[in-house]
Every structure is written in structure tokens, then in C-alpha cells.
């Protein structure tokens, strides 16, 4: 999976030439002085201690930064409120220009962004590039469509012609975004960009492991012309996120279902909105009419991109019995040929898991499945020869329903195989989970695939693709069903969650005395008779 020279370089700690090979775990990957301007962007009084993050490729230290206190979080939100009031008064077109400039900056400076993302997460460079491409796409989309999404709507009123109705969208105020480590650039900005476009301010709490990427995003927004105070970063662990929820007007959380339930509960107590993207146990159905050779590369990518540390990654393959032997043989061969590596270039197909905790979880899931009788068709081993947290892309067969890997989200490079006899059974297997985030269906017959998709209980379904086209279709809403989340992101769905609706109703007839009050002034049953006649006419004319 990795040649001898690459393995030797990984063992020495030489990642893209940025480490000291003589002492890889005692030398900072990134020069502290160079990182100082980014670290200085953290909203902190520097009295709550520090955090040191590590490079997953080698275990060497990346950066040490101060964390934020509860008082820092509260003060940060106060500053954000002040900045937000002026920002909301600006025309949408001016706010959109900031997003346009940000999209250009991300593409122009992609090399430094890719390096940071890789060094903090351990992912392969192609997976890191997906983040750059996504933010450029999202920024462009909202810059172009934002004015339309936020425009006021005219609706029919109670009395045609005499009643005018307008529905406006107003910003909620300060949005608190709590982002995980797996896609640090995307999840730092995916909620922030529509929030800023809508006239809000954003306070971001990234995972401690990926704080540098969040700070890079803050710098990029600053360079794009975003006024001070509108996008701030607080740093630290779960306690900082909990404090943030206590002060903001809307919380956007991406993470585990268990933590998401707690966030939702507290948001409900405070009567603020919450957008939650949570766990998944995503399934992909391979129908009996597929072109196996054409399908395998895309299905491999659907399962193992970002080492499986992706909310919409496929963890369950549901394969029609008629083509199962051929498909499994070719799929396993392709998986075994995937290249692992820690390089800051495009030579590796699969990178590292991000932390020891992720490695432990993946190992525990695989070991439990094997103890219950599952078979390993590929992988199933910790690749310590490549780096401390590398795990071989793994395919498991004959996995019993009681196995942990069959029920719980693994969030790693592990996929199970289940054989079925028909589409009906495939749908049953795909829906047999508490989650409902994403699924995929592979078939030459698109009509057939769509009929299967309509019956799958999840927020999005890809046909003849794993996840890329779904995630990249940023005009379309994305959101989980069941235990996979609340609310949605992308397109108008983000704007819906990050704004408040305000209805303004005008009595146009007041200028010439044609009002309800003047009608009621006629006394007796006259007002009722007039209104009855009017309602009957509106019904016959099918007026809404």
C-alpha cells in the first residue's frame, strides 16, 4: 500500500519536509513564530490554560494556543452583537461581495489551506481539496443567490386589493457555530457564510485539534473585507461550546447524536433555533444490473474518502445476490490497492485517522465484529508502519446484526457487506437503523433507482454517485432524518434557519375609509352578511 521509501520517510517523521527527522515528536511541525498571527486571533484573555494539538501523520506537536474562558465567550458575543447591528443595515449586495472575494481567496491560497487541513486532520490531499472546492462553491452560490433568498415576498391578504401583505427575513443576531475536526474548513464556514450573508454575526468554536484551520478561515474573511467583530473564534473543549450555547441566538452544531441531543435540549430551554447535523450509518445499494467495473471506483471513494471520517461516508454496502460475487471480488481488489501515506501531495489515496480516540473506536468495532464471527476481506489492521493512527481500509463480510459495527457509526475506513435478493429487501436493510442522513443507489435503470430512493428513510439519496454530487449541489437542502439531525443546510434551507420571518400587513383601504372598522360600524348583522358574501365569492373564484 505504500512503498519502502515512503514508509521509511513516515517512520522518520519527515512529512513533506516539515519535520525534524532526528526528533519528530519533540519538534513542532509548524514554526510557532509563524503561527503566532493566527493564534492571536483567538478570543481569549489567556487565563484559562493552553491546548497543544498534534499532527496525526507522526504524533509530533503542531501548535500550542490559549483557550477561552466563559468570560471570554460572553465578551465575544457582546462584541459580535455590536458589529452585527451595523452589518445588518448594509445592503445584501455589499455583504455578498465579501463572499465573492472570499471564494477567490480560498482558491488562490489553496496551497496553504491544504497544508493546514492535512497537518491538523491527517487526511489525504484530495480529501483536503474537497474542502477548498466546497467553500469556493458555497461562497459563490450565496453571493449569487443570496439577494433572491432574502428578498421580501408579497402575499395575498385577507381582503383582496384592500389588504397588502409583505413577509420579510430578518437576521437572528449572533449565530454560534460548533464545528468538529473532520472537515475543519468546510464546517468552519458552511454555516457561517449564509449566516453572514443574512446579516448575522458568527462566533465559531472549532474542535481543539483543528483550531488553526478555523483561524485561517477567519483571516481569509478579514482579507475579504468582512468588518471586525462579525466572525470570531473561541478556542477550547466542550465546556466552551456549552458556554457559547448560553449566549447566542441560534446554534449550528455538527457532531455526534448524543451531544446533539444535549445541544437541542438547551437550545429548546432558551427558545433559540438549532441546526444539527448528527451521526449516520449510511448505506449504498448495488443493484443487479450495474456495470461492476464502472461502479467500483466510485463506490470505493464513497466508502474510504477521508479515511471514512465523513458524515455522509458509506459504512454499509447492500449488494444484490445476483452480482455479489463479482462485485465483492473486484471491490476488495480495488480496496487492497489503495495507497496509504502522509504526504503533503496527491500521491496517497487514503490518509490517517485524526486521533488515538478514532483509532481506538475503529479497532474496537472491527475486533468486536471478528469476535462475533465476521470475516475480513481486506484490511482489518492498524498500519503503525505508516503512521501512529493509520488504519488499513477494511471490508467485513458475514457481520452479525448484533455486532457494534452493524449498528453504530464507526466513522473510519470500515465497510460491511450485506447480500439481498431484491430491491424490497434492500430497502428494508437500508432503513434498519436509527439514523437517516444519507444513502446511495447504484443501478443502470435510473427510474428503478429513483423508486428505491423514494422509499429510503433519509435526508438525501445519491444515484450512481457516493456523496460528492449531493454535497456539491449547494442549492439543494441537506439535512438528516430520525437521529441524524434537525434543520438543514445549503440553499434556502440555511437562510430559513438563520433568519426570522416578519409579516407586515397593511390596510390599503384606510386612505378612503374602506376598513373593517367602518364595516363593523354599520351595526347589526350587516358586517356578517357582507363578509359571508365576500368569502363565498372568493371560494368560487378559488382565491387564496
TrEMBL record:
Keywords: Oxidoreductase. SUPFAM superfamilies: ALDH-like (SSF53720). InterPro entries: Ald_DH/histidinol_DH (IPR016161), Ald_DH_C (IPR016163), Ald_DH_CS_GLU (IPR029510), Ald_DH_N (IPR016162), Aldehyde_DH_dom (IPR015590). The active site is at residue 277. Residues 48-504 form the Aldehyde dehydrogenase domain. It holds the Pfam family Aldedh. GO terms for molecular function: oxidoreductase activity, acting on the aldehyde or oxo group of donors, NAD or NADP as acceptor. It comes from the Bacteria. PANTHER family: ALDEHYDE DEHYDROGENASE-RELATED. NCBIfam families: PRK09407.1 (NF006916). Belongs to the aldehyde dehydrogenase family. This is Succinate-semialdehyde dehydrogenase / glutarate-semialdehyde dehydrogenase. It comes from Promicromonospora thailandica.
Amino acid at each position: 500500500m505504500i512503498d519502502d521509501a515512503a514508509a521509511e520517510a513516515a517512520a522518520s517523521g519527515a512529512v513533506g519536509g516539515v519535520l525534524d527527522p532526528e526528533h519528530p515528536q519533540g519538534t513542532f511541525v509548524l514554526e510557532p513564530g509563524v503561527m503566532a498571527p493566527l493564534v492571536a486571533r483567538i478570543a481569549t484573555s489567556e487565563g484559562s490554560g493552553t491546548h497543544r494539538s498534534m499532527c496525526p501523520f507522526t504524533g509530533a506537536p503542531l501548535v500550542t494556543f490559549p483557550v477561552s474562558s466563559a468570560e471570554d465567550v460572553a465578551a465575544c458575543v457582546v462584541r459580535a452583537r455590536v458589529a452585527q447591528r451595523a452589518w445588518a443595515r448594509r445592503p445584501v449586495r455589499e455583504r455578498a461581495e465579501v463572499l465573492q472575494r472570499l471564494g477567490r481567496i480560498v482558491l488562490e491560497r489553496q496551497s496553504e489551506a491544504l497544508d493546514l487541513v492535512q497537518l491538523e486532520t491527517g487526511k489525504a490531499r484530495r480529501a483536503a481539496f474537497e474542502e477548498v472546492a466546497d467553500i469556493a462553491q458555497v461562497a459563490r452560490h450565496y453571493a449569487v443567490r443570496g439577494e433572491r433568498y432574502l428578498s421580501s415576498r408579497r402575499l395575498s391578504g385577507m381582503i383582496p386589493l384592500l389588504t397588502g401583505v409583505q413577509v420579510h427575513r430578518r437576521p437572528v443576531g449572533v449565530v454560534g457555530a460548533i464545528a468538529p475536526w473532520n472537515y475543519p474548513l468546510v464546517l468552519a464556514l458552511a454555516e457561517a457564510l449564509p449566516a453572514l450573508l443574512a446579516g448575522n454575526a458568527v462566533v465559531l468554536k472549532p474542535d481543539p485539534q483543528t483550531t488553526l484551520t478555523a483561524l485561517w478561515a477567519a483571516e481569509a474573511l478579514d482579507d475579504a473585507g468582512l468588518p471586525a467583530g462579525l466572525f470570531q473564534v473561541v478556542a477550547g473543549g466542550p465546556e466552551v461550546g456549552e458556554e457559547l450555547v448560553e449566549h447566542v441566538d441560534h446554534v449550528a452544531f455538527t457532531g455526534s447524536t448524543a451531544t446533539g441531543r444535549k445541544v437541542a435540549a438547551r437550545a429548546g430551554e432558551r427558545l433559540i433555533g438549532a441546526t444539527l447535523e448528527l451521526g449516520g450509518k449510511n448505506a449504498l445499494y448495488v443493484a443487479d444490473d450495474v456495470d461492476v467495473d464502472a461502479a467500483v471506483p466510485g463506490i470505493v471513494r464513497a466508502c474510504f474518502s477521508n479515511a471514512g471520517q465523513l458524515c455522509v461516508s458509506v459504512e454499509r454496502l447492500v449488494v444484490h445476490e445476483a452480482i455479489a460475487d463479482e462485485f465483492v471480488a473486484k471491490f476488495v481488489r480495488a480496496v487492497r490497492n489503495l495507497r496509504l501515506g502522509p504526504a503533503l501531495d496527491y500521491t496517497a489515496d487514503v490518509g490517517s485517522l485524526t486521533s488515538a480516540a478514532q483509532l481506538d473506536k475503529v479497532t474496537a468495532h472491527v475486533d468486536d465484529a471478528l469476535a462475533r464471527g465476521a470475516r475480513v476481506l481486506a484490511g482489518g489492521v492498524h498500519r503503525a508502519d505508516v503512521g501512529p493512527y493509520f488504519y488499513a481500509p477494511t471490508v467485513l463480510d458475514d457481520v452479525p446484526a448484533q455486532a457494534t459495527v452493524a449498528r453504530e457509526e464507526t466513522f473510519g475506513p470500515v465497510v460491511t457487506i450485506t447480500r439481498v435478493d431484491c430491491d424490497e429487501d434492500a430497502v428494508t436493510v437500508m432503513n434498519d437503523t436509527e439514523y437517516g442522513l444519507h444513502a446511495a443507489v447504484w443501478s443502470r435503470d435510473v427510474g428503478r433507482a429513483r423508486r428505491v430512493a423514494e422509499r429510503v428513510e433519509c435526508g438525501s439519496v445519491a444515484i450512481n454517485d457516493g456523496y460528492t454530487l449531493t454535497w456539491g449541489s449547494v442549492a439543494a437542502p441537506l439535512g438528516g432524518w430520525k437521529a441524524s439531525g434537525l434543520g438543514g443546510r445549503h440553499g434556502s434551507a440555511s437562510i430559513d434557519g438563520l433568519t426570522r420571518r416578519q409579516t407586515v400587513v397593511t390596510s390599503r383601504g384606510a386612505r378612503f375609509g374602506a376598513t373593517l372598522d367602518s364595516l363593523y360600524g354599520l351595526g347589526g348583522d350587516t358586517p356578517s352578511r357582507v363578509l359571508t358574501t365576500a368569502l363565498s365569492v372568493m371560494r368560487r373564484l378559488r382565491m387564496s
